[in-house]
Fold each of these.
Amino acid sequence: MALAGGTLPPDDVVVAALRTGDEAAFAALLDAWSRGMLRLARAYVSTDDSAQEVVQDAWLAVVEGIDGFEGRSSLKTWVHRILVNTAKKRGVRENRAIPWSSAFERQGGPSDGSSRFSGEDGVPPGPWKDFSVLWPTPEDEALASEVRGQIAAALAGLPDRQRIVITLRDVEGCTSEEVCEILDISAANQRVLLHRARTWVRARIEAYFETVGRPA
Amino acid sequence: MKRFRCAEVVELVTVYLEDALDEPARLGMEQHLACCGECGHRLDQFRAVIGVLGALPSEEDLRGDVRDRLLSAFRDRHRRGA
Ligand SMILES: [Zn+2]
């Protein structure tokens, strides 16, 4: 099984390799998915150490259960479902509530439809107004790191379910079908959570640009 | 074709980007976006935010001892199984 390049072979190849005890294949899978799994686990449990344990227990369940994998979903979805179930049990043991809303949301952030961002009449908005300064990636490293900090803070301020969905979709790059299967939610629900989360992050970035103003 | 107001477009940005609108709604949305600069910029902002989110570096890695434990569990499992 190929180790380099970060692209994994098709599921049937990976699954066959795992079943025959191909350790390099397992290591490649660990290295490809564990970071994303840690990020996801962290939304359910209270500490980084707990998240490490959740990811460890999920992988142990994968090792024990791989012979029973039937291929009805993708391997990635199957592994992430195991992770979510493991993380939920752990979160319950920690008495951690999964809130539907947070202080941030009550402050009126998400789905704020105001038009503060429009430019002056006839004046095209600058790169700060339409965020084109961010796209495709900020060239200015100081700005890039500042914006990453703002985004991390914005994500941290989201209700858990919104944060989980936007993390899976936009940070980890899962498809909407994968997210629905991993979290057992409907496509409509997934879109609502994703839209609220993106709206909130967008508003936070806009507020940040308004604070720093347009540089000379 | 449906005619959209700005407030409706704002709520439909994600559905639009997911390509989950029916044909008349998609056309109406595109017509609105073509002539409303404000909504066009908001769409650009969404795309920029999605781009930055997709390029976030991961802060945490699997701890070395956890990775070692998993690899040895994998080896044991197959020694048992064989
Ligand atoms: Zn508009």
Note: Residues 37-54 of chain B form the longest helix (18 residues).
Amino acid sequence: MNDMRIIERGTLVNDIKISAKGVQVYYADNHAIKDVDVEIEDKTVTAFIGPSGCGKSTFLRCLNRMNDTIDICRVEGHIAIDGQDIYDPQVDPVQLRAKVGMVFQKPNPFPKSIYDNIAYGPRIHGLARNKAELDEIVEKSLRRGAIWDEVKDRLDAPGTSLSGGQQQRLCIARAVATEPEVLLMDEPCSALDPIATSQVEELIDELRQSFSVVIVTHSMQQAARVSQKTAFFHLGNLVEYGETGKIFTNPEDSRTESYITGRIG
Amino acid sequence: MSDASMDSTAPRQSRTLLETDARTRRRNAAEKRFRMYGLAAIGIGLFFLIVLAASILRSGLPAFTQTVLSVDFVLTQEQFDKAEGTLFKTKAYEGYFNAALVSQLQSQGLEAEVDAKAAERILGKTGSTIREFYRANPDQLGQEVRFDLSVSSRVDGYFKGRVTRDGFVESRFLMLADLDLVDALTEGGIIRQQFNWNFVTGADSGVDNPGGAGIGASVVGSFFMMLVVLVLSLPIGVAASIYLEEFAPQNRFTDLIEVNISNLAAVPSIVFGILGLAVFIQFMHLPQSAPLVGGLVLTLMTLPTIIISTRASLKAVPPSIRDAALGLGASKMQSVFHHVLPLAAPGILTGTIIGLAQALGETAPLLLIGMVGFVARGYPETFAAGFTDPNSAMPAQIYTWASRADAGFYEKAWGGIIVLLLFLLTMNIIAIILRRRFERRW
Ligand SMILES: Nc1ncnc2c1ncn2[C@@H]1O[C@H](COP(=O)(O)OP(=O)(O)OP(=O)(O)O)[C@@H](O)[C@H]1O
Ligand SMILES: [Mg+2]
């Protein structure tokens, strides 16, 4: 842990974008998330860290109700975005997901052309009035996903013909193209090389200007580099949540300290 | 063997790659043996396929040729009037016809006796055919008309090797002397074999006239049924599968439905036939023997096949594709119709065509709802009439022919099987082509 300069970066106090209270998640009998309270700020990058299987992805998927698609999954508690309860029966999860974009742990491009991969979201949400506008959105998104230069000559090629890292950046670009207000990223850089990683981190930093970004990562350095807030999960519990700098230099809980210094994990 | 096992326990000394050790040799031998088994299995399969195809072709191809007797015939007005004046009118016409036959033979320099009985045994009752023709077309009187008459099934069999001179048993249907006459007529070019268009386009005939039987009408019947099956079972089957696979919650009720669908696929087809008889004909009073009812019954039979294969191909689409679409804010419908269904399409298509091919070859349920062979008559009226008029289907027609006594129908049954197999082959080729086209190459 020698790259700790970030901590000197001052953080403003932002509005609360997402507020979760007493969230419990069960997969059938498996209690995967235990009573988590967390408040995620707007225009902030929040990192979720923790050992494998501790429930980071599960909690992330609660925030855009992707857990609804898993039959055995049951979510309890209260999660609100901009003060509105997203589990309210009146809320349409489809509308919610247009507002809360997601990049999955495994790259999952559509088996369609690169262009169509990006254009799909804007198309179904009617973000472009004509082809020219759509072209513009596609280019802008691919640029933000740090992949434009690699694919600009073969937008008709299938998205699945790209390498794993390129596919992941394509998925990031695809998520960005729908202009979400919150972007959930589940280990977006696990398949990327250092150059692409730093490009994605730049993108995350840029997105922070307008959105709230939640990123799950296994890399302490990455959490320290990109995030302002960090949440440490362990065995389904939210052990500690606070300023990234504080978590990494002066954690309150001994488990956090053990994890970031590499003793548990 | 013993030193091989010693080898495997002995410590490895030299590890040269240029020599294969005993273990590797054994593995290679096992692999080679397995490949031989595979080749043998394929060889046996191919052998039986060839035997089957050869025997079908050998027995069935004669159905596509027909032995006809052609005579150029002139009937004058006086002859017509005179014949109409006699008591046995058809006898009179027969006399004229036989005379024409003799004179035609003589003009070729061939001498032969044509007695009325022999002519009748070879040609059947020609008198009535001729009388009907001239009563219908009186303007043809005095003109030369060419009559192509198909010979009796035994004489036809003589040409196709079914009836031979050695071991010939004389009967009132055919005498040995008749064969001499037939030979003479053949030499004179009056009797010859030609392609039997009537078999391909015609309808079923009476039990005593195998020569006139054709499969055309029941091909049309099968076609109408397949249309009904396709139009009903594809949308219903695909919609049911999409609902069960993508939308339905996983609970006892859907489990029950799933088990029932699998069971339905295994229900014998005759059960569907009796169900169709009870529900569609006796309860709903739909017309008997109609392709519409046949199609409905076969739809019931095909649905489970289509549902099972469609669900399998929907299941094969990786869930991450659905997640990707939902994560972008697509609705469930959008995710299914934009992403999942196109990926599942080749599988759905293959399943559908296999189901249709099964339905095309199905006989038992059709017999129960009255789509038996002999109703496929009155062609071409049945052809134009369509879904609700009595007709047969190819397999039922074949079954009807196979169960008739006259040996001439035996060959028709085999010929019908060739036609049926040609249709099945065409459907499978279409399936392969469509599959190739729809399959994404990524
Ligand atoms: N679809 C599922 N069905 C059943 N159990 C699940 C499912 N997804 C996750 N779990 C369980 O929930 C717990 C948390 O899993 P989760 O995927 O959230 O871990 P994670 O922190 O993201 O781990 P990783 O860092 O390895 O991605 C695990 O015990 C896992 O077995
Ligand atoms: Mg995870």
Note: Chain A is about 35% helix and 25% strand.
Amino acid sequence: MKLPRLIPNALRSLFRRPTTRRYPAEVRKPYAGSRGEIVNDASACILCGLCARRCPTSCIEVDKHLCLWVHDPFACVLCGWCAEVCPTDSLTQTEQRPTPRTVRQRTELHPTPPQRPAKPKDA
Amino acid sequence: MGRTVIPFGPQHPVLPEPIHLTLTLEDDIIVEALPRLGYIHRGLELLARKRTPDQMVQVVERVCGICSMMHGMCFCQALEDIHGITPPPRAQWLRVFWAEVHRLHSHLLWLGLFADALGFENLFMQFWRVRERIMDIQEATSGNRVVVSVSVIGGVRRDLNPDQMLWCRTELAGVRDEVHRLGKAMLGDYSIAKRTKGIGVLTPERAHALGTVGPTLRGSGVAHDIRMLDQEIYGAMEFKPCVENDGDSWARLTVRIRETEQSVDLALGTLDRLPQGEIAVKPKGQAEGEAVRRVEQPRGEALYFVKADGGKLLDRVRIRTPTFANIPALLDLLPGHSLADAPVLVMTIDPCISCTER
Ligand code: SF4
Ligand code: SF4
């Protein structure tokens, strides 16, 4: 009974494009606003530590004295809060998903802490 | 007659999650089922003593992957009660939109897994293909495919622009057509009917006495849904819970298929009625007080108890998840059925073990 309905379906499926993508070879463009990798621009970071305090997984460490900003991408859940609270917008969340890696490595940056504002010349 | 004891799980092909049942059999019939839980206990409730309330939102969202939106939403609502603030209307409607999309994605996942438990591989793939569209909606609107993470205390983090709303509408309409077609295929299948009709009957009285929640309870003919209490949003959309009266596996399956279609309508309804305005208000000061909140998750009613003592951290967060409430019903269902029915019966309560063990 179902056979007559089955045959056209099977034929259609035979010539249809596959639903899936050949993933590592073919990657879909991420949607705008997708939550991807966390990137810090060391030249703009002032080592204020707000990102480390907001991070729910404690995967950011900031040490003002050692001028060290460390991010553990393997503990990061890509929630994007650190980028939202960063006052200088040096920390941003890209749209690209992190790529698989074979070694577990933390991102260590050495931003320069802000200098005291120089005295105005005419004073 | 001699008895045989068979361990079911914690690693079992039908369930990706670790639940262990010790099944005592007489011949081929189960006479007793005893659960053992705690394989993936993570101690998330205790983290409340180490993380600020803001950070806890991200933590409770990870109690469960497939109902993360509702966990975060319920926790935020509890804290809003403590703070005494009300999120703006647009934020409330947006939360409902994401919650319904989330329910869709969870139900489609379950429908696929259920088809898989019955050995219907093709239908499994089809449901998951549709689910992919829902996850695309989630990614396009919230940024993440599964853990949408849009709730904050006082509102939501993301807004929808008109383009996105238009695109969501067409996608959701497409999903409704496909779910309707697949649901018809599932309910019209001879073997599925044979394996589910009249199996695992839970009477309304028994379901009520065991404290069952969610589609398991509604499959037994009890119209109980926390969404009915929300007059402002669900009331405006004339929400009626889906109820089936048979109480067997078939009824629970039908309830979920109907709820999937209903969720599409509700999500579309929120898009139609979305008010304009702000999407978040800022809570002021430290929280002090207690609050209890309930929310209807895809698996049933979840309960949050939050206690804050005015300090930086919360005092206590207690989460009662729906699967926890449904396990007694499962243990009641299993005796009297053959061992071959056990995987299907376990699937019909839609167990989410990582929820249960938090
Ligand atoms: S990344 Fe931003 S928030 Fe983090 S320490 Fe640097 S400036 Fe502060
Ligand atoms: S995205 Fe979230 S988890 Fe990752 S570093 Fe930022 S705050 Fe932490």
Note: Chain A is about 20% helix and 15% strand.
Amino acid sequence: MNTILKQFLPAIIAPFVGIALWAFIVRVFSIPSYLLPSPQSVLASISNSYPTLLYDAGITFSEALTGFALCIVGGTLLSISFQLWPITRRTLYPYLVATRIAPIIAVAPFLLLWLGNGFLAKAATAAVVSTFFTVINLMKGFDEVSGGARELMRSLSATRFQVLLKLQIPNAVPYFFAGIKAALATSIAGAVAAEFVSSNAGLGHLILTNYYYFRTAEMFGALLVLIAGGVLIFGAISLTERVFFSHYSVRREP
Amino acid sequence: MIRLDDVTKVYYGEKSATALQGITMEIAGNEFVSIVGPSGCGKSTLLKIIGGLINPTSGSRTVSTDNGPSSFSFVFQDPILMRWRTARENVRLPLEIQGCSLQKEAGIPELLKKLGLDGFEDSYPSELSGGMQQRVAIARALISEPTTLLLDEPFASLDEITRERLNDELLQLWKNKETTVKNVVFVTHNIDEAVFLSDRVIVLSGRPGEVKEEFTIDLPRERTSDVRYSEHFNSLRRKIRATIV
Ligand SMILES: Nc1ncnc2c1ncn2[C@@H]1O[C@H](COP(=O)(O)OP(=O)(O)O)[C@@H](O)[C@H]1O
Ligand SMILES: [Mg+2]
């Protein structure tokens, strides 16, 4: 308990110090609230509008998480096909890189154009921009199998598919988690970017409309909810890895 | 019986290397053969050819099936255990790959016990010492009930005491006919180990690897650790050492 407290204490204390500093600066320099609202007014705006905030958060996170789920399933299938049929790797890999090189905000308008203004286009943007991370990490995990392990599998007359199933996939588990953590962040960015381009609900929509009216406290409120939700999901992923997949961790390499 | 006839192996690449040249040898049933030689002389290559893991560039390998079909199991220098599998699950791997045989699977606990792993069945490799890990690797090689066991410097990275203990145990296992193994081919650069374990020691000379000399180890088959201190053991050791420059 003590060590856990020690590990997380700085991270817990830091925001309070930050908020205090923030309140202090706003007051001492009398900064106008449309530039930097006081923490009290941000808190007030969150508590005043939390039903809508919750509603918009629900929309944004369901877009992001749908895209995230799609990128996990699609990315995993893609990487497995890259392993089993190298021709698919040679054909598709450059385009996969292109999806990540193209700026998210520039990809979104096309998907909105093709898939309509609603939920689908936002989830698709989230999926397209984050698949890359799942795939490159999985590919690394599949490839970083020791020569000795490959030789062992060969001495057991394992088929290509068995090597993948018994050796490469389990070996890639920690890489998979690293990949989807990065993918989660871009999924959220993708959903919000698509909302910026065109939407009538969601946290991205909220930030943008409040921006037009200089309602900075409300913008902050929406941003904080966005961050809190993302961090919560990130934590859930880390916890899942630690609890259920600790033996796959490379730290345990004998 | 396994026979190699005039076997040559060339590794082609930017700098092609002849790893083995003109190797002719025979491994009879019920024989424990060691292959010794300096590192890089082609011991591992020879073992892989004996086991059919790689093909010779020229020459032939014949495996006689007079006494039923042969099967080969390897033990490498590194235990190569899968970190996500427990000892028991690592041992089960060959059965999963070669198609499950319930009868063989039922033998896992006994085999682990025989190798001194009782109590460690559900331990992960990271929780086992180097010696224990190598025991798991040997169990994994034995579970598929091979007729020939091929070991490539299996104890090279263990400390002296652990190595001697594992030597003793391997010899017991082999001598007591507790396993299906008829032939053992054991690669090492440790001459003591080779003399202690073997019926016959084959010395390879380096680059390219050729059979330099063969020694029949006429120590009594009932060997205990004490044999290591006998006069005869030492003279054999000295003779073999003298052939390796
Ligand atoms: N896969 C390979 N490709 C190219 N050269 C190899 C390969 N394996 C071994 N060699 C070369 O063949 C020679 C014999 O190697 P090896 O059989 O591993 O020797 P040892 O086991 O006695 O140390 C060495 O010179 C080594 O560099
Ligand atoms: Mg070697």
Note: The interface with chain B takes residues 146, 148-149, 151-158, 162, 166-167, 170, 173, 247-250, 252-254 of chain A (CB under 8 Å).
